[in-house]
Specification:
This protein is α+β, with helices and mostly antiparallel strands. It has one domain. A two-stranded antiparallel sheet has the order 1-2. The longest helix has 13 residues. It is globular, with a radius of gyration of 14 Å.
Amino acid sequence: MNKIQMFNAGDEVGLFRRLGFNAVFYAEVISGPRMPNLMYMTTFENKASRDEHWNAFREDAQWKILSKEEQYQHNVSKIDIYFLHPTSYSDL
């Protein structure tokens, strides 16, 4: 799957790091009905912060160049987004 290649070799991970996407994990799904599949979890202070980070990502010059490379065209067919919140018994 070239989205994984884009994420690693294309340095989308580095872009996330530079823009302050607090990563919990980045992973390639190895089992299940929807493969190949890239999965990651990032954390933000709140939804407004999350939206600001994603807007910065979409406007970033490195992302605009990377996303226009022919080899990476049409490499996302579905995106699932889940917003998780700490419970009352969470450490945070």
